[in-house]
């Protein structure tokens, strides 16, 4: 049996840690028939096929990592099923930023969200500032997925996304996971429908 | 079928678009006034963290892209269908992305640099800003002052206070692998990229190094070119450990499609037609796309942007395409950012527009119309000033109507008996003519609630003929909406020239902002109230 799931994945992390490079590597590496998104690396989709013929389609939302846009992040991770928080292993400050992202996600995002912590720029490990032990310890404490990747060489990139894909249906078992991600927008539309009903209702009451 | 749909939709459009129960219109006002303020302060891409100088010669191109994006967003006004609007949103993003792919890589200014810039500016202005916006940063004052003096960028048509605050300092901290050191050299001789008509032909293209020898010259250029590069040198010497040098195209993160230090300064004329072969275009990430969209919105100030976005959000099936929803969310985030932007945090002179910011807050809920509100947009946004009255009127109407509905049942019962008492407060002769004025006066003085209730008292009589009404107070058959307009008209007039409403109501109003509702509630007729509720 082949099941198709669709998930919204949001990329968080300080600017210039390689969020978009990571996802570009992921998207471009896996399929030759990669079709360039109309809006660049800011929004990409990619499908992962798991062992049991389950396909998981990621809608990958890139965010602006600059501090001044941080307050807007909730708009992006709303209804997200998974989040990849990226830091730069050559900059310890970026891990600190990642921690704040994770704290925020745990506090404000959907409780079932799958969070993966991802140390990028593994190819620059000579300039490493964040040790694997430190990051792994933190990830274990918080119950996060963790890996180190290199968008440049592609090391670990597919693995992290595959691991997310494998973890996702597990965290919300049964086939209605896809339904959940589908009804997410649907539910919103329902709310909006109520608003519509209320909206014309009032002028009508006034025009009598 | 389509025709039917179209006519139907066009008919409904006015009602569905900017539904009166929401505050879309207020958001439009707030956004455009903020945009006007940002334009007045000459917001530049640099304030948003994009180093335009780096893409020298491409500044024009970037302007073209930004303008095209703004024009596309402006077309939101011309289509009704949510799907069309969503397509426009995507197209606007696409314009930016395509434009960026033609341009050489764009450097992002790191937040540390921006913080430094802010710090420097604060020192420069010699005043302490809001501690919330000030991020602790340990830059020595003397250094920052010397840097501040070292560069006197020619700011075109900069009004008084902003000239000091918005001189965006080119940033010195840069990774040696990035070619930004060259930009620092050129930044001093180049006028600010922020003015609406930026430099047409940067003279530095002649001396800018070729990409081939860029690597070699980068280091030396950093030593030679930057006159105040002490910070830069220290930063680069300790191996970019502390200061994040985030050129958009970091060598470590870039992949084959974005080889970093290749900013081949192609002539701007050829950029549109033939992309320069050497530099791989910027991979358009959210980091760079988002500021550019902000800049497009600020520069073009598309009318009713928030209304269009909310309309699209309400009526567009969001499961249609993830890309559409991404663009929608992106633009909503832009609107959110512009509405709430901390001008001082951007490095713009915050003090000058603070009054405007205070006058036009973004109402999260339906806020009462205060007497200041009509003044705010007209004083801030010159082009929308004439429309402000219209929107304010609509808002007051909608709120009056909404409150009238809810209060109708209670008040119409109360009116029956309370008017007998109210009559003693009012000169009988002038009551009928001035009832609208009274309500409007109360509205301006005491808030919408009072105006709405006052309107309901009169309107409710027209709708409930069972209640015996003294003839002088009722205007039977008059639609409530007319009351709303009457009230608004008088509200506006009483804002400018108060005291127009005569009689005892005027006195009451002047004393304490009294409202008919509170008056009626304070009257000792509990029996009448209960009777009105039960009836």
Itemize the secondary structure elements and their pairings.
The complex is a heterodimer of chains A (208) and B (535).
Chain A: E1 4-13, H1 19-30, E2 43-49, E3 55-61, H2 73-77, E4 82-88, H3 92-108, E5 114-120, H4 132-142, E6 145-148, H5 157-171, H6 176-206
Parallel strand pairs in A: 1-3, 1-4, 4-5, 5-6
Antiparallel strand pairs in A: 2-3
Chain B: H1 2-16, H2 24-40, E1 50-51, H3 59-74, H4 82-102, E2 107-108, H5 111-125, H6 141-150, H7 160-165, H8 180-187, H9 211-225, H10 230-237, H11 268-273, H12 286-300, H13 305-315, H14 322-340, H15 343-346, H16 354-359, H17 375-380, H18 385-422, H19 428-446, H20 448-463, H21 480-496, H22 503-512, H23 516-522, H24 526-534
Antiparallel strand pairs in B: 1-2
Helix pairs in contact in B: 2-13, 2-14, 3-4, 3-12, 4-13, 4-14, 5-6, 8-9, 12-14, 13-14, 18-20, 18-21, 18-24, 19-20, 19-21, 19-22, 20-21
GO molecular function (chain A): GTP binding; GTPase activity
Subcellular location (chain A): Cell membrane
Protein name (chain A): GTP-binding protein RAB5
Characterization of the model:
The complex is a heterodimer of chains A (208) and B (535). Chain A is of the alpha/beta class and 208 residues long. Chain A has a single domain (3-167), classed as Rossmann fold (3-Layer(aba) Sandwich), CATH 3.40.50. Chain A has 6 helices and 6 strands; from the N terminus they run βαββαβαβαβαα. Chain A has helices spanning 19-30, 73-77, 92-108, 132-142, 157-171, 176-206; strands at residues 4-13, 43-49, 55-61, 82-88, 114-120, 145-148. The longest helix of chain A is centred in the last third of the chain and has 31 residues, at 176-206. In chain B, strands 1-2 form a two-stranded antiparallel sheet. In chain B, helix 2 (24-40) crosses helix 13, helix 4 packs across helix 13 (305-315) and helix 4 packs across helix 14. The radius of gyration of chain B is 30 Å and the shape is globular. The chains are: A alpha/beta (208), B mainly alpha (535). The interface between A and B is large, with 65 and 70 residues.
């Amino acid at each position: 049996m082949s099941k198709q799931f669709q998930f919204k994945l949001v990329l968080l992390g300080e600017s210039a840690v390689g969020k978009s490079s990571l996802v570009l590597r992921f998207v471009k590496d896996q399929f030759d028939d990669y079709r360039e998104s109309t809006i660049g690396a800011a929004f990409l989709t990619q499908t992962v096929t798991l062992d049991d013929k389950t396909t998981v389609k990621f809608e990958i939302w890139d965010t602006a990592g600059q501090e001044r846009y941080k307050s807007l992040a909730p708009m992006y991770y709303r209804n997200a099923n998974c989040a990849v928080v990226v830091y730069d292993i050559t900059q310890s400050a970026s891990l600190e930023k990642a921690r704040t992202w994770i704290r925020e996600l745990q506090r404000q995002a959907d409780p079932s969200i799958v969070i993966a912590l991802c140390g990028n720029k593994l190819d620059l490990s000579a300039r490493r500032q964040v040790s694997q032990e430190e990051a792994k310890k933190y990830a274990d404490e918080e119950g996060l997925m963790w890996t180190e990747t290199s968008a440049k060489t592609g090391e670990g990139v597919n693995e992290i996304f595959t691991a997310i894909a494998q973890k996702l249906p597990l965290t919300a078992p049964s086939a209605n996971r896809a339904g959940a991600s589908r009804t997410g927008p649907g539910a919103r539309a329902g709310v909006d429908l109520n608003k519509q009903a209320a909206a014309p209702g009032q002028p009508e009451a006034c025009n009598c | 079928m389509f025709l039917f749909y179209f006519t139907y939709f066009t008919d409904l459009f006015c009602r569905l678009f900017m539904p009166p129960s929401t505050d879309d219109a207020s958001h439009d006002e707030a956004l455009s006034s903020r945009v006007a303020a940002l334009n007045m302060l000459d917001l530049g891409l640099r304030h948003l963290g994009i180093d335009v100088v780096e893409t020298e010669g491409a500044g024009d191109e970037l302007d073209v892209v930004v303008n095209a994006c703004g024009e596309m967003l402006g077309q939101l006004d011309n289509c009704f269908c949510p799907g069309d609007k969503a397509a426009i949103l995507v197209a606007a993003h696409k314009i930016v992305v395509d434009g960026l792919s033609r341009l050489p890589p764009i450097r992002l200014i790191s937040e540390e640099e921006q913080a430094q810039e802010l710090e420097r500016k604060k020192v420069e202005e010699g005043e302490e800003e809001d501690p919330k916006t000030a991020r602790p940063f340990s830059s020595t004052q003397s250094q920052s002052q010397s840097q501040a003096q070292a560069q006197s960028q020619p700011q075109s048509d900069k009004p008084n206070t902003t000239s000091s605050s918005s001189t965006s300092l080119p940033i010195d901290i840069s990774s040696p692998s990035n070619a930004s050191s060259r930009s620092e050299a050129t930044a001093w001789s180049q006028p600010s990229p922020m003015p609406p008509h930026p430099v047409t032909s940067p003279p530095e293209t002649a001396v800018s190094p070729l990409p081939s020898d860029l690597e070699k010259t980068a280091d030396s250029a950093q030593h030679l070119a930057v006159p105040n590069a002490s910070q830069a040198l220290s930063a680069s010497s300790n191996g970019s450990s502390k200061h994040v040098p985030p050129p958009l195209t970091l060598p470590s993160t870039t992949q084959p499609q974005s080889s970093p230090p290749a900013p081949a300064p192609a002539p701007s004329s050829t950029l549109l037609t033939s992309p320069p072969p050497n530099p791989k275009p910027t991979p358009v990430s959210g980091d760079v796309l988002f500021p550019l969209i902000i800049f497009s919105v600020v520069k073009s100030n598309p009318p009713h942007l928030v209304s269009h976005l909310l309309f699209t959000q309400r009526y567009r099936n969001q499961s249609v395409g993830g890309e559409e929803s991404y663009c929608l969310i992106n633009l909503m985030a832009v609107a959110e950012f512009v509405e709430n932007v901390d001008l001082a945090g951007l490095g713009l002179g915050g003090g000058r527009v603070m009054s405007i910011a205070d006058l036009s807050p973004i109402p999260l809920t339906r806020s009462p119309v205060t007497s200041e509100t009509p003044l705010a947009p007209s004083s801030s946004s010159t082009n929308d000033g004439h429309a402000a009255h219209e929107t304010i009127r609509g808002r007051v109407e909608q709120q009056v109507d909404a409150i009238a509905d809810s209060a109708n049942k209670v008040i119409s019962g109360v009116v029956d008996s309370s008017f007998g008492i109210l009559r003693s407060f009012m000169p009988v002769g002038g009551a009928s003519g001035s009832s609208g004025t009274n309500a409007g006066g109360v509205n301006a003085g005491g808030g919408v609630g009072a105006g709405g209730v006052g309107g309901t008292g009169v309107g409710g009589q027209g709708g409930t003929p069972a209640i015996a009404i003294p003839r002088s107070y009722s205007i039977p058959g008059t639609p409530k909406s007319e009351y709303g307009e009457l009230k608004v008209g008088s509200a506006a007039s009483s804002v400018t020239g108060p005291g127009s409403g005569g009689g005892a109501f005027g006195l009451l109003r002047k004393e304490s902002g009294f409202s008919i509702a509170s008056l009626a509630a304070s009257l000792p007729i509990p029996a009448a109230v209960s009777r009105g509720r039960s009836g």
